[in-house]
Amino acid sequence: MNNFSKARRRFLRGAVAIGATAPFVDMVRPSWAADDIKVGFNGDLSASPSAQSGRAAIVGIQAALDDLNAKGGVLGRKLTLVVRDDLSQPPKSIHNMSELIDNERVVAVFGPTNSGNALAWKHIPNRKKIPVVGCLASATDITKPTSPSADNYMFRVGSVDRFQVVALTTYARKNPTTKVIGFLTETTGYGQAGLKDLEEVAEAQGIRPAASGKFGVADTDMTSQLSKLRDAGVDTVLIWAQGTPTGQLLRSMDKIGYFPTILTSWAALNLSFVNTAGPVLAEKPIFLQTVSEDRTPHQQAFFDRMLPKLDNASSFAFAVHAYDAAQLVAIAIAQAGSTEGSGLREALENPKKPYEGIAKTYHPSFTRERHEALGPADQKWTCWRGGKLAAYTDAVVASLKPEDFKG
Amino acid sequence: MTSTLLQALVSGLAIGGVYALIALSFSITFTTTNSLNFGQGEFVGIGAFLGVTVLYVIATTAGEAISFSSLPPSTSNGLTYPVAAVVVTLLFGVLGILLFVLAVRPFAGKTGMNWVMSTIGFGIILQSIGLAIWGPAPVNLPSPLGDDVIRIAGTGVRPQEILILVVALALMAGLDLLMHRTRVGKGMRAVAANPQAAALMGIDVSSMMIGAFALSAALAGLAGLLAAPIASASLFLGLGIALKAFSGAIVGGLDNPRGCILGGFMLGLLESGVALWNAQWREIVIFVLIILVLAVKPNGLFGAQSLDKV
């Protein structure tokens, strides 16, 4: 190689180096230091009515990180949160996921708000070996491994549709006043997945619904579908829909004066449900949530701390899930001794010590086979009373035993 | 069973009233300018939010401490809702003029369909401004007539649904009279039939076209305000409604205002009728029927029969 070529190569190398660093020379130093451990949140914070739960999750995660950082962080490093709003759109959510993992180099991700978005991108964290701990979306399939023997990076500290459906169907089966059951579901992915759970669990419990109806998420009049159920003699209806359409369904029930026993999904927690149904009709359904309104002193202290930062008190459970999820990730990092993805997954699946969280004491939080931190026994019966959430109980609820829950 | 059918009929008429009103608004611009506002859905959503804003401003000016996201029923009492309706109608009239001047007139008389893109763009700009002002969350708008269900022969209906039906029918009858009995109406019809000939007859074609867009936009804004107490005010409220209304207008015959109204009502009734059988099949049945109707009668059920000789 002659000297001219060497000089030219040196010049080119230098030029590339200057070109690559130039954009960063004047860049403001980011708020996190280079040795901080970054965790991400990807979910809806502004677009859908569920966005209030996304915002509650951010408050919960940040509270956990503040507590951890006050004690010196994990592995001697501070934890920082990188937030991405997916606007409830699957394409945006997929993009956010790659961006958080590849560009931001987060070690774990929390979220998303909507089940459909989690199902749209769950292959990404599994392929890139970055644990995701869901704290909002409840679709049953989110935490299922991509194949039976595959390493699974999808975890959840939150409610699960299947567990709710099992509990609600058991209530209907044990209720002496229930003679004829019907299903009503919305036509979105959430409603379709819920209907699948409803049908499978009903079959496992030996229940045959007399009628089943569907409605659009933007429908404002469901009297036709309800009339069909009424004509079939349905006295107990299981509803799987988001907050707003469930509210519209109750308004349509009011129109035709037909009020069967109403068992519905935890979407009724959402303020959009009460706003649509109105405080009086909102008292009709029974549903489940993971944090009881009869709070322990530990939960009450956390509630008092969170309340000023929440949009409303009804999104408290999401802050609890998010806080516990962030703490469990921090425990796993400490146990693994590194932030490397597969080691973190193994530490999450094999916790050495129990963790006394806000929702409960996790002992253990996860195993290799079980990626749900909250189980069927963590479901709390709930209703609305006077515009506020309240613990629900009656003779049927009091009589339910763990062995009753099948499916 | 009778009460079930009657309930489906009442529900179909109530939603059909909204479709008919917007179908009519499509027809008004089509018959005068041969163009449509494809941002009409966004106009409906903005109309609803503007109505909420007017009610909120009136209530807070009177010293009430209320939340914008959930207005109490008292905010729609007395004259406040009619005042909001007048303000929304007038502001949307101005908006319609702006739409015509900025997004339709530059392309009028030219070949191509540029006005399609420009009206869609106008709607998206409007919606984006709306999102920046009010955010994406739906907001409650109380009905001026209360929310108690009225029961007639076992059939339930809310006062707001009756109000929609009455206002829609009154507006349609009024516009029908305007088009057929007044000089302005006859002028508009003349412009629709042949703008050049109308201009030669001394009719101010430009004013007629501006008037048509103002009227069309005002109807969309008012429809948003009327529908909001039932569906909640949302910036995304109008898109689905406008699509159905447009379908109704096409089935009825876009160049026949009375046909558009009938088309809107037919679609509402068909929707609630199919839901009696199977709601999931509703969209499939409706759009298959629309395609069938158009295959047999390309100009819609009540559209003018045109014959082009070449």
Automatic annotation (TrEMBL), chain A:
It comes from the Bacteria. GO terms for biological process: amino acid transport. Keywords: Amino-acid transport, Signal, Transport. PROSITE patterns: TAT (PS51318). Residues 37-373 form the Leucine-binding protein domain. Belongs to the leucine-binding protein family. PANTHER family: LEUCINE-SPECIFIC-BINDING PROTEIN, PERIPLASMIC BINDING PROTEIN OF ABC TRANSPORTER FOR NATURAL AMINO ACIDS. This is Branched-chain amino acid ABC transporter substrate-binding protein.
From TrEMBL, chain B:
InterPro entries: ABC_transp_permease, BCAA_transport_permease. Coiled coil: none annotated. Keywords: Amino-acid transport, Cell membrane, Membrane, Transmembrane, Transmembrane helix, Transport. The chain crosses the membrane at residues 6-31, 43-59, 79-103, 115-135, 162-179, 199-220, 226-247, 259-278, 284-304. GO terms for molecular function: transmembrane transporter activity. Pfam families: BPD_transp_2. This is Branched-chain amino acid ABC transporter permease. It comes from Phreatobacter stygius.
